[in-house]
Amino acid sequence: MNFKNLSIWPVVGILFVMAGLSVFADARVANEALIPIHWGMDGSPDGFANKSIALWVIPKISLLVLGLFLLIPLIEPRKENLMRSIKVYNTIFIGVFLIMALAHGLIVLHALGRSVNVSTVMFMAMGSLFLVIGNFMGKIRSNFLMGFRTPWTLSSEQSWNKTHRLAGWMFVALGLFMILGPVMKWGNAVTVYGMVAGVVLTTVIPVAYSFYVWKKEKKSAV
To answer: b or e along 100-113 (b: 16 or more beta carbons within 10 Å of the residue's beta carbon)?
Structure first.
């Protein structure tokens, strides 16, 4: 896979914006200030750090994530299939960095004394990402590094395709739940526990289904 197929420049732009926000806030926040970097289930900050950590931790992590996304195409054995899934890969690529940039922006806002409901914003942002990924899930072609890579999906094209179509619908449902939670004011606890349960189901059910499809295909081939 040629790197020109990857959406590197939008991500580099996001990284520059994140760094710019950090530099802007760093000049305006006192050295002794403690900045919220983690929030509890009730939306209240319960973790703090000084500005040298708080304003730079997510940009630094983002650089590591960028390296990972650039490494995957180099070590993927089924590069041609990853190439066929390039739109999905780039969507996830950009989506992950937008979420990280949003989280960084919320930390910067709090550092500058602007109070924002972090839970509401992040639930809706993560829900939107799940929604987008779910819509693209069925278009992922068989590969070793992206999607539901079970022994059965990797050995059966039918199992791969059917499993990812099912997972796509489940991702969409989970995304809608996470978006509706804050809108319907279900409360952070309900949304968090529902999200955790949804993630577990979205992981376990497609894996079990991949085996079922593979087994059924084997029986019909006899």
So the answer is: bbbbbbbbbbbbee
